[in-house]
């Protein structure tokens, strides 16, 4: 069963986030808490959304996503931040069903894209996404500001405003 996440799913989602981070060799980077996820997903004006898949009443996978906007298309899209299914539950079609649910939401709402990033060494995921019809955007390189770089750049902008 695939459904939108509910507040009671937050512990399971965080567990799966941590499992994904461990698989991606980055568990040490996870700072999110249950409170963080609960506020982001279920606060007064949520900006991030999640779908979960259940097996025998237990959350065994999730897709966490948010809206983007394409100026070229003039329409919103979905950015898939994380898609993960517990390794013991793989091969049952849950991952594809989660991805298909996002495609259904995008289609129903008139969104122009569903996109995400995948680590270049993650061959199983790359093959999974290709089999679903996704194609890499090789001409684009992802850039990221994080940590101290954000306030440092913000200070430069404030200091460099013309007269």
From TrEMBL:
CDD domains for this protein: NAT_SF (cd04301)
Coiled-coil region(s): 13-40
Keyword Acyltransferase set for record: yes
SUPFAM superfamilies documented for this protein: Acyl-CoA N-acyltransferases (Nat)
Pfam families: Acetyltransf_1
UniProt cross-references to InterPro entries, sorted A to Z: Acyl_CoA_acyltransferase, Diverse_Substrate_AcTransf, GNAT_dom
Residue ranges constituting the N-acetyltransferase domain according to the UniProt record: 1-160
Record-linked PROSITE patterns: GNAT (PS51186)
Keyword vocabulary terms for this entry: Acyltransferase, Coiled coil, Transferase
KW S-adenosyl-L-methionine (keyword) present: no
Family that this chain belongs to: Belongs to the acetyltransferase family.
Name of the protein in question: N-acetyltransferase domain-containing protein
Organism: Actinomadura macrotermitis
